[in-house]
Design brief:
Keywords: Cell membrane, Membrane, Transmembrane, Transmembrane helix. This is LapA family protein. Pfam families: LapA_dom. The protein is α+β, with helices and mostly antiparallel strands and 80 residues long. It has a domain of 31 residues. It is 70% helix and 12% strand. A two-stranded antiparallel ribbon has the order 1-2. Strand 1 and strand 2 form a beta hairpin. The radius of gyration is 21 Å and the shape is flat.
């Protein structure tokens, strides 16, 4: 049942994203350090959404690995 709720929520978000993309065809200029790009507004929004998701995933993995290493180093080792 929970998987069905997740699927419905994901479908709603995807439909909203497609509607946002269809409604925002405005061209914007993305200035980087040495270059410029002409992109649609929705492309810039998706780009920064994906960068944010990737950064969040990497930070989460970093903290999980640090916590696991800290927990393993605090456990007493048995020597026989």
């Amino acid at each position: 049942m929970v998987n069905l709720v997740y699927a419905v929520v994901i479908a709603i978000v995807m439909v909203a994203g497609f509607l946002f993309g269809a409604a925002n065809q405005q061209q914007v200029e993305l200035d980087l350090l040495y270059t410029q790009y002409q992109l649609r507004l929705v492309d810039v929004a998706v780009l920064f959404l994906l960068i944010g998701l990737l950064a969040g995933f990497l930070l989460t993995m970093l903290f999980r690995i640090r916590r696991r290493l800290r927990r393993n180093s605090q456990q007493p080792t048995s020597t026989s």
